[in-house]
Amino acid sequence: MKNLLIPLSLILFFIPLEIMPHLLCSPAIAGLDFRIIPAGFSAPPVVSLWVERLEFLTGFAQLPFGPQPTEKPEEEKSPVKGWRLVSYFAIPPTQYSRSGKGIIKAESMGSRASLFKEVGEREKNFSMLSWRWRISNVVRSAIETKKDRFDAAARVMVVFGREGGFRGFGGEPPGLRIEYIWASHLPRGHVFDHPGEKYCKVFVLESGEGKAGQWVYEERNLHKDYKKAFGTEPNGLLAIGIQTDTDHSNERVIAFYSEPMLKKK
User: Fold this and answer.
1) Count of domains observed in the chain
2) 142-201 pLDDT per residue, tens
3) pTM of the prediction?
4) Which segments of 73-122 are extended strands (E)?
5) Residues 6 or more apart from 39 whose CB is under 8 A from it?
6) pLDDT tens per residue, range 46-95
7) Does one domain contain both 124 and 165?
């Protein structure tokens, strides 16, 4: 019975208070059947009806109307200041940390994550990129040309395009990409399509464990490499990234990177 009175209360809300007692005691008004009111029901005093109306309006005003403001999710905190951490769903993240001035350490054991840094407006058309890197060992079971086996002890990534920004929450920057890797088996100088990414070319700069434990200096002409990879001139630089990953192999690798530096020529 209580539930049946709820629609009635909404109708009565708009009835003038001076006729409310007569209405509540009448069997039918304007064709509306109010016989659902229990026997013995007495009309409430006018003052209490005003209180009920006020309570109704107070509750009504608290209901959410229109689009509600949404809380912006906090981005994953980066372990390296000035770089954005990008992790991947259901994959443990590679651990990155500072290891001296301008040096980033990456520790991976069955894990994967990247660090990206957006390129400043002044550097978007710079053509030369240089860095140093060092690895403890290669990923011995990796097969670089297979999507489910493509791990690398170290890689430096360059993203090209007109528009900056990252893909939503925790995503990579969009655009054409070149990856420079320290491979396990493929020979130095080999260039191939990334087995798991569209619009991405992979350049093998180092291979095997002959230089493991040593700092190795690299310098690349990005415009030249881009033309070799995609057959056109680049639109500009968007971001630089680094990644050490062993999520497919579950092996352990420690790598060190000096922060890549851009210059005109």
Assistant:
1) 2
2) 999 999 999 999 999 999 987 666 665 458 899 999 999 999 999 999 999 999 999 999
3) 0.72
4) 84-87, 95-98, 103-109, 113-118
5) none
6) 445 444 554 555 554 455 555 555 544 455 688 999 999 999 999 999 99
7) yes
207 plus 257 within the same structural domain: yes
Which letter, b or e, does each residue of 197-224 get, where b requires 16 or more Cβ atoms within 10 Å of its Cβ?
A: eeebbbbbbbbeeeebeeeeebebebbe
- The answer to whether residues 128 and 253 touch, using CB atoms and an 8 Å cutoff, is no
Give burial (CB, 10 Å; 0-12/13-18/19+) of 87: middle
User: Two tokens at 236?
Assistant: 């500009």
Domain C-terminal end among 14, 30, 61: 61
pLDDT, the chain, mean: 82
HSE toward the beta carbon, residue 93, CA cutoff 13 A: 16
Together in a domain, 119 and 228: yes
Count of CB atoms situated within 10 Å of the CB of 63 = 6
* Tokens 């058309």 belong to residue: 125
Alpha-carbon distance values, 61 to 54, 56, 64, 67, 190 (Å): 11, 9, 8, 15, 68
- Cβ–Cβ under 8 Å, residues 151 and 251: yes
**Same domain, yes or no: 237 and 157:** yes
Nearest to 48 by CA among 56, 39, 40, 36: 56
Does an H or E element contain 152, and which?
Answer: strand 152-160
H or E stretch at 4: helix 2-12
